[in-house]
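Follow-up to my post from last week.
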Amino acid sequence: MNASPHVALFATCITDTMKPSVPIATVKLLERLGCRVSYPERQTCCGQIMTNTGYWDEAVPTVRNYVRSFEDYDYIVAPSGSCVGSVREQHPMLARHAGDAGLERDATAAASRTYELSEFLVDVLGVTDVGAYFPHRVTYHPPCHSVRIAKVGDRPLRLLREVRGIDLIDLPKAEECCGFGGTFSVKNPDVSIAMASDKARHVRTTGAEYLVAGDHACLMNIGGVLHRGRSGVKTIHLAEILAATEEDAR
Amino acid sequence: MSAREEVLHRIRRATKDVTEPDPVVDVPVDWAYGRPLGTEDVIADFVEKVEDYKAAVRRCAPDRAADTIVEALQALDTKSIVVPAGFPEPWVTALSEAGFTLHSDDPQLTHAELNAIDAVVTTAAVGMADSGTIALDHGEGQGRRALTLLPDRHICVVHEYQVVSDVPEGIARLAPGLRERRPVTWLSGGSATSDIELSRVEGVHGPRHLSVVLVAD
Amino acid sequence: MNRRTPEPGSWLGIPEFPRAAKASLQDAEQRKNLTHATTTIRAKRVVRASEVPEWEELRTAAAQIKDRVARHLEQYLLQAEEAMTAAGVTVHWARDAADANRIVADIAKAKGVDEVVKIKSMVTQEIDLNEYLEAEGIAAWETDLAELIVQLGHDLPSHILVPAIHRNRSEVREIFKEEMGRYGRPAPEPISDEPSELAEAARLHLREKFLRSKMAVSGGNFIVADTGTLVIVESEGNGRMCLTLPETLVSVVGIEKVLPTLEDLEVFLKLLPRSSTGERMNPYTSMWTGVTPGDGPQDLHVVLLDNGRTNVLADPDGRAALRCIRCSACLNICPVYERVGGHAYGSPYPGPIGAILGPQLRGMGDANTRALPFASTLCGACNDVCPVRIPFTDILVHLRHKAVEHKTAKHPTGEQLLMKGAGWVMKDGRNLASVQLGTRFAGRVLRGKSLGPMPIPLASRWLQARDVEAPPTQTFRQWWKDEHEGGAK
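User reply:
Got it. Predicted complex:
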């Protein structure tokens, strides 16, 4: 790795549109750690909303677009384990579905250059102490796709443990799904709500001020229930905590 | 087309993507069969695991075997015992002298008769330490399957040389008997169920008490 | 004619998964029972799996052995048939449930029996054998404790391993008190709700049936092709009773249950109990190879059943579902199953395995079956616990695609239009940017207010329990443009 790696940010459609503070924090963090960051404007989405709903033909163009958007970059970094999981596991499969061997090759190659944020920090940059400061009580929810598809392991926790001022509290039944599941939350709203409510209850028992996760979708789901219940617990993305510094706190 | 021909035809059609005719070449299996575990003390492990199922284990020297079998039976408040053919003669004598009522299975006892007998004593074929399992191959001293099923108490004599570390070695020892079409029964503790609230209850249909006499070599 | 066995519940009235799930969620007692049970068994499984250092190797080996069998199924089945026949077993083949049920009933009639004792078996649930026999005047008695609770309770099974998992001890007590006497020896009086007392009542009730029955029906966990050995794993000893005491034994076994050799058993007998009941080994395992003179049933039959399995086999992307050894680890770990229970899945195969097996066995013809692949958040917990490494989430997504193809084959649907729209938006950054003009406008109108409950189609399903932040007035794309004039480098 050279001293200042050139990173293409995959902002992901959901945070790009609905929660820009997450990709903004990602850019600030990566730049602070000495990376040169680019944002290929052609990029959109990983396509899993279509793929996981069963609309594969509709998802194939997003694979082509992903491959073209990021073809010039060695490191593609996204602040979402779910989107990274989709790029790795589903893009080659969709290319096969389209019967496009060239696309499958390119998608596999692009996937191998794609990192979830915590993976990039720990594995490529080799840091766990990113110089962050966040003097709050925080509990961490490990998003299912980060853990089981992207397989980021305990990297987010290793990063969080090094944050100065943080009071990190274990979340009961942390490994259990929050019930979002993309279109699951619309197709099976009652089960989804039951799961999200249980997760929110576990969050409240920790007494944390903030719930942190590496996927905005889970935070939107759990946070929506927490907000409706006037719990006072705020949600925050991993990138936002890692980007926070003592200067920000002043 | 007969059902047999039709099912086979469907299978052939369903697997037409498979081009390699040799299954072993087509799908290699990454597993070394028959390996022992690296257990330091296999016998101690066996005892611990069998006891973990709440089965009683009594260890004894060979010359104490008969007395230990008697003790095990007395501890279970037993009066009548079925003794399979081939159960060692000195032990049968000891049981008889201890005052138990002994039943032979020759001619075969009816199911109702067996059901009314308190206990069965048998030898075993193999012990598997890691899972605390005893295997019967229903040979000499072990009786036909009903004998170790209907009486409510089973006293099983296992020799230490019969105990292996784990299931793979156990299967390897049982394989010759299975190839001779012997029935095989594995016992891991007594009958049990967890069907109500997943709360374990020892003893449903099989013998509710399993007592193991482990004889040193 | 009066029925001889309790009339069971029916799968037919159960609505599509989302509606059935809603009803189940409202059953507070059942939710409590399920949470307790699944939490208990998950913890046991983790302990027992972690005791085995080569656990991951075992899972890989099991998947490979099962794939080997599936891909060469004809060869292994013929080998098993030959070995079983040579050992004195009468081998039957059944295309479907109708074939299998008829074969079993014909054997019973030929033997002149009007009742059979049964070992818990998923496959006979699948083909609804009990009701077929009932209609033929033959009483089929379930002898597994949980199956007995379901049968006497006029109920349906809701779990592969513990079919009465949705019942608690006091419910079981009521069922036993009320029903046992109608079908044999009544429950002792008085009887408490202690599981040990309830198990004792079942022991006494069933003992008379075991001692008098002339015929038993079982499933089978494994058939070893090279020796023709059948293997059944169980806990209570009811299986041994059925396999040992009657004169006639009929085992109905799915064609995917074959293993190549005796040695392969070592892999599965290490994996299955630890994954299933969370024990190092199940209390009893029975292996038999044809007829043993003077020991056990002298008339043995095996019915090899297809009933849709060749449909599963025909799909290389769904085929791995046939690896399943019915351990139920995927049910126990599944957050959806934990909250909803088994009945909502509309078949004896609930949970993740039901969601991938049901649609493949039965086809996508009806809406209830098509809904099953969507009954998952794709959280992937099932992938990790499966002892035969079934890639559940991949197969679920694959089946969703097939369900969509089926639904949209004749005419387009609203969902399809939405997805086509999303596909257009996401195929190029410029399209996404133009849509973001709309979200930014909405953000300006809402000025940071959260969205609460509102009667908008689809969105209302989300908003009924969750608030949503208003979209921001500035997207990241715009922020980047503002920060880095000139756009991408």
